[in-house]
Write a structure and sequence with these properties.
65 residues; mainly alpha; elongated
Length: 65
């Protein structure tokens, strides 16, 4: 389970990078939808990191308390 959450973070980060590369490929000019797409990708990475941290905290609490 702990390794699974680490791989999930890496997968979501790769997807976020692909979204950012695609948006930058289309246009470097600022656009509301481009910003929103990048923000959603970053939010997905943050949620994956929170899930990973919570998993590690729960496992540590289970075995060390």
């Amino acid at each position: 389970m702990m390794l699974g959450t680490l791989f999930l973070v890496l997968i979501v980060e790769l997807l976020n990078s692909s979204v950012e590369a695609a948006v930058d490929r289309i246009s470097y000019s600022k656009h509301g939808l481009s910003k929103r797409a990048k923000d959603y990708g970053s939010a997905a990475v943050m949620l994956a990191l929170i899930l990973c941290g919570a998993t590690y905290a729960l496992v540590a609490a289970r075995y060390y308390l």
